[in-house]
Design brief:
Shape: globular
Strand content: 25-35%
Structural class: alpha+beta
Helix content: 25-40%
CATH class: Alpha Beta
Radius of gyration: 18 Å
Strand order of the largest sheet: 4-5-3-2-1-10
CATH superfamily: GHMP Kinase, N-terminal domain
Number of strands: 10
Largest sheet: 6 strands, mixed
CATH topology: Ribosomal Protein S5, domain 2
Number of helices: 6
Length: 254
């Protein structure tokens, strides 16, 4: 059972706010309930060494949490001198998810760096990051296309986003399958899982762990089906925002 009145198959209130900062080509503040992540997409006219001279672009991601984004202050990783294993895992996941829906040759020799900075954490920071970052990348590609002096390059950049990607968490608590876990639910559930999926139905990430009792194949299927239902709503929200670049904010009630 849920710890709140929210239905088992309901998302938390979700919002996407674009152009949240001035300088990045794409900038989105994404909120899943009390979790808030600032996602920016920045374009640079350079590529990693392994791509130089190949006429292809790259997309990479970085992830971090503000020191007081959680209940107690955490020391900045820059002060510690290294990133945690969790940070590296999450930013690699974000990068993989976004590269799966971007046609990298269309970028030319250009890199898009996605920065996901958690302002406030209440569970699901990685799934919120992926969902918001997809819109930020879409906006960045549109800005690049509008600035292109060559019509063919502009057309290629407009078509570079080949699909949309969103992510959501699911879990089992007391035998009930729950969608979009907050921190308290995530920390007390029997099984938790993250799903990342394209709007066309392709799965990019299915990562689940039993914290106590093992879960059955039937429960796995139930969790995936529950997650896909929530993801379809997130994809629809992304589509609404991408279809209207003048729409600065949109959301879901749950």
């Amino acid at each position: 059972m849920r710890l709140t009145a929210r239905a088992d198959d309901a998302l938390r209130p979700v919002s996407l706010k674009r152009r949240f900062t001035r300088h990045a080509e794409g900038s989105v503040l994404v909120s899943f309930g009390d979790t808030q992540v600032l996602c920016t997409a920045s374009a640079e006219d350079k590529v990693p060494g392994f791509l130089r001279g190949k006429g292809q672009g790259w997309l990479t991601a970085e992830y971090g949490m503000l020191p007081r984004s959680t209940h107690t202050r955490s020391e900045r990783e820059a002060v510690r001198g290294k990133q945690s294993g969790r940070t590296l895992e999450i930013q690699r996941l974000i990068g993989r998810c976004l590269r799966a829906v971007v046609h990298l040759p269309a970028l030319g020799e250009r890199t898009i760096t996605v920065d996901c900075d958690v302002l406030q954490a209440d569970g699901g920071t990685r799934t919120a990051s992926i969902t918001g970052a997809c819109l930020a990348v879409s906006d960045a590609l549109r800005v690049l296309a509008e600035a292109a002096t060559d019509e063919a390059q502009s057309k290629a950049l407009r078509a570079a986003l080949t699909d949309r990607v969103a992510a959501v968490s699911v879990g089992l608590r007391g035998g009930h399958a729950l969608l979009d876990l907050d921190y308290e639910e995530d920390s007390s559930c029997d099984t938790d899982m993250n799903l990342a999926m394209t709007a066309s139905g392709g799965l990019i990430e299915v990562q689940g762990t039993a914290e106590g009792q093992p879960f059955s194949r039937e429960q796995l299927d139930a969790l995936i089906n529950l997650g896909m239902g929530g993801l379809s709503r997130l994809h629809a929200l992304q589509a609404r925002m991408m279809a209207d670049p003048t729409l600065l904010e949109a959301g879901l009630d749950g």
